[in-house]
Specification:
By secondary structure, the chain is an alpha/beta fold. It is built from 20 helices and 15 strands. The chain is 45% helix and 14% strand. The strands form four sheets. A six-stranded mixed beta sheet has the order 3-4-14-9-10-13, sandwiched between helices. It has a five-stranded parallel beta sheet with strand order 8-5-6-7-15, sandwiched between helices. It starts with a strand and ends in a 6-residue tail after the last helix.
C-alpha cells in the first residue's frame, strides 16, 4: 500500500512518509493507491470486537506490517484509547427506535477529534523515536524534529495539543481565529502551558488560518527548515482513524438488534471540512453496508449547495458566524479527496485511458479554479456520481436551537437528551432526511462534541426551560475553573502569511534554546 497526491505529484509514499508530510508538495492531499476490500468473513469475525480490536483490523488494511509491526501497532492503538472515559470509546445512544446518536466526545478534550488525534500524536512520537534511534545507531547524533502546524475552528486545536503535549522531539503551533471559537474551546487550547505548545490567535477567519497553514506547507524552504507536520484532517491518518467508529457503530447496532437484513443504517454527519463524513465514504467503499451518507451543514453551506445544485463555490458573504462555530468554514479541504474519486470514475468511463494521471490533472485544474475564481463549474456527471453516495441539508441557527430544546423536552415520550449545537444540526437534518427515507432505515447521527463546550448556544436554547441547570446537568468536573486558569497565547493582529511566519520563527527559535534537540 502506497500513497499519492490528488494533484499528481509523481512520488508514491509509504504510510509513514504520508503521515509525516501531511500535505503534498504540490498542495494536494494524500490518498491510498487502492481502497482495500473487507475480508470475506468480516461481519462474523469482527462482530464482538472491542473498539481497539476493530481499529487494529481496519488500520492493518492500510498500514503494512513491514512499516509498523502488528504488536507495535496494537500498542499504539491501546495507548491512544486508554485516555477515553467510556470503555466503548464511541458509544451508541438510543433516542428512539429509528434514531440513535453516536457519541464521539468521550476523549480527553470532549470532541470527536480526539479519536484521530490521540492516535496521530502517538504515531508521530513512534516514527520520530524510531528514526532517531536508527540515526544514533549509525553515528548521527542530531535528532530529527517535527513542528506540528495546524489551524482550528475550535476542536482540532485542543485535541491536537492534548495529542502531542510534552512528546519528545515535537513542538506544536495552532492557529485559531481570534474571538471566533467558544470560550471553553479557547481555554482548552491556551491553558495548556507545556513548553512545546504554542497558540496563535489570528484576527481573521478559520479559512484565513487554514490558508496560512497551507501556504507555510507549500513554502519548501520554510517547510524544510522547521520540518512541518500536519494535524488537520488533511493528514491521511486522521481520516483513517475516523473510519473505525463507523464500523464500531455498525457492530453496536448489529449486536443490539437495531439493524438486520431488512433494516439498514443511514449515517447523518454534521460537517464543515468534510473529513468526518469522508471517513464514512471510505468505510462504505470498503464494503460496509449503509444508505447514502447524509451531510448536515450550517449556514456555511458550500457542501449543501453543491449537492443541491452542482455548484461548488464560496459563499458570497464570506464566512457566517453561527451557533455551531466548528463548522464555520468557507471551503471544505477534504472535499478534494472525494473530487479525486469522482474524477477517477469519470475517467474510467472515458476512452482516454489515462487513468490516475488524468484524474489528478482534473483535480489540480479544479483546485486552481477554486483558488483563482472562488468557484468551479462541475460537470453534470460529477454531480450525478456524488449523489449516488451522499445527500445534504442546510440547517439554520434557529432550527439548531429549536432542536436542542426539542430533544431536551421531547413530547413523544423519548428520553431527554442535551445536544451540542453541531449535533443539533445533525439531528435537525436527520428529521428532514427521515421524511424521504425508504422504510427500514435507522439513522445514526454523529455527535461531535460535548454540550458543555458550547455553553452559550445550549444555554440560549434552554433558558426558558425551568428544569434546565447547566452546572448540574451539563458541566463536567474537568471544565470547572478552566476559564480562570493562566493562558499561553500570542495574538496576531492580521491574517498575514509573513507576519505569522515571523511569529512562528520566534517561538521555535525559543524552543530550540529551551527544549534543545529533544523537542522542537
Amino acid at each position: 500500500m502506497k500513497y499519492f497526491s490528488t494533484r499528481g505529484d509523481p512520488e508514491e509514499l509509504s504510510f509513514e512518509e504520508a503521515v509525516i508530510r501531511g500535505l503534498a508538495p504540490d498542495g494536494g492531499l494524500y490518498i491510498p493507491t487502492e481502497i482495500p476490500s473487507l475480508p470475506s468473513n468480516w461481519e462474523s469475525d469482527w462482530l464482538n470486537y472491542s473498539f481497539q480490536e476493530l481499529s487494529f483490523a481496519i488500520l492493518s488494511l492500510y498500514i503494512p506490517a513491514q512499516e509498523i509491526p502488528s504488536e507495535t501497532l496494537k500498542e499504539i492503538i491501546n495507548k491512544s484509547y486508554s485516555t477515553f472515559r467510556d470503555p466503548t470509546v464511541t458509544p451508541l445512544h438510543k433516542l428512539n427506535d429509528k434514531l440513535h446518536v453516536l457519541e464521539l466526545f468521550h476523549g480527553p478534550t470532549f470532541a470527536f477529534k480526539d479519536v484521530a488525534l490521540q492516535f496521530l500524536g502517538n504515531l508521530f512520537e513512534f516514527f520520530l523515536l524510531r528514526r532517531n534511534a536508527a540515526a544514533e545507531k549509525s553515528g548521527n547524533q542530531e535528532k530529527e524534529r517535527l513542528t506540528i502546524l495546524g489551524a482550528t475552528s475550535g476542536d482540532t486545536g485542543s485535541a491536537a495539543i492534548y495529542g502531542v503535549r510534552n512528546k519528545a522531539n515535537i513542538s506544536i503551533i495552532i492557529l485559531h481565529p481570534y474571538g471566533r471559537v467558544s470560550p471553553i474551546q479557547e481555554a482548552q487550547m491556551t491553558t495548556v502551558t507545556d513548553a512545546n505548545v504554542h497558540n496563535l490567535a489570528v484576527h481573521g477567519t478559520f479559512d484565513d488560518c487554514q490558508d496560512i497553514v497551507k501556504t507555510c506547507f507549500g513554502d519548501k524552504i520554510f517547510n524544510s527548515k522547521w520540518k512541518l507536520g500536519a494535524v488537520n484532517s488533511i493528514n491521511w491518518a486522521r481520516i483513517l482513524a475516523q473510519m473505525v467508529y463507523y464500523f464500531s457503530a455498525y457492530f453496536q447496532a448489529k449486536r443490539a438488534g437495531i439493524i438486520n437484513d431488512i433494516k439498514r443504517i443511514q449515517f447523518v454527519v454534521p460537517t464543515g471540512n468534510f473529513g468526518d463524513v469522508l471517513a464514512g465514504y471510505y468505510a462504505k467503499r470498503m464494503g460496509m453496508p449503509t444508505e447514502s451518507l447524509a451531510i448536515a451543514t450550517n449556514a456555511n453551506d458550500i457542501l449543501a449547495r453543491f449537492w443541491k445544485s452542482g455548484r461548488y463555490e464560496k459563499g458570497e458573504n464570506g464566512v457566517v458566524e453561527t451557533a455551531s462555530p466548528a463548522m464555520d468554514i468557507l471551503i471544505s479541504s477534504n472535499f478534494e479527496r472525494l473530487l479525486w474519486y469522482l474524477a477517477d470514475e469519470a475517467e474510467a468511463t472515458s476512452a482516454s485511458g489515462h487513468g490516475r494521471a488524468a484524474a489528478c490533472a482534473t483535480v489540480k485544474s479544479w483546485m486552481s479554479q477554486m483558488k483563482e475564481n472562488g468557484r468551479v463549474p462541475m460537470p453534470k456527471e460529477v454531480l450525478e456520481r456524488a449523489r449516488k453516495d451522499f445527500i445534504a441539508e442546510r440547517v439554520s441557527d434557529e432550527e439548531t436551537l429549536e432542536t436542542i430544546k426539542a430533544h431536551f423536552t421531547p413530547q413523544d415520550g423519548t428520553p431527554s437528551y442535551i445536544a451540542d449545537p453541531h449535533t443539533a444540526v445533525g439531528l435537525y437534518a436527520a428529521s428532514k432526511f427521515a421524511s424521504t427515507n425508504p422504510e427500514g432505515v435507522i439513522q445514526i447521527v454523529l455527535s461531535t462534541a460535548h454540550p458543555a463546550k458550547f455553553s452559550e448556544a445550549v444555554t440560549k436554547a434552554l433558558r426558558s426551560s425551568p428544569s434546565f441547570n447547566f452546572e448540574t446537568q451539563v458541566l463536567p468536573s474537568e471544565f470547572k475553573g478552566l476559564l480562570d486558569r493562566p493562558r499561553k497565547v500570542v495574538e496576531v493582529e492580521r491574517p498575514d502569511v509573513e507576519l505569522v511566519k515571523q511569529t512562528i520563527e520566534k517561538v521555535l527559535a525559543k524552543d530550540a534554546k529551551t527544549l534543545g534537540a529533544q523537542s522542537l
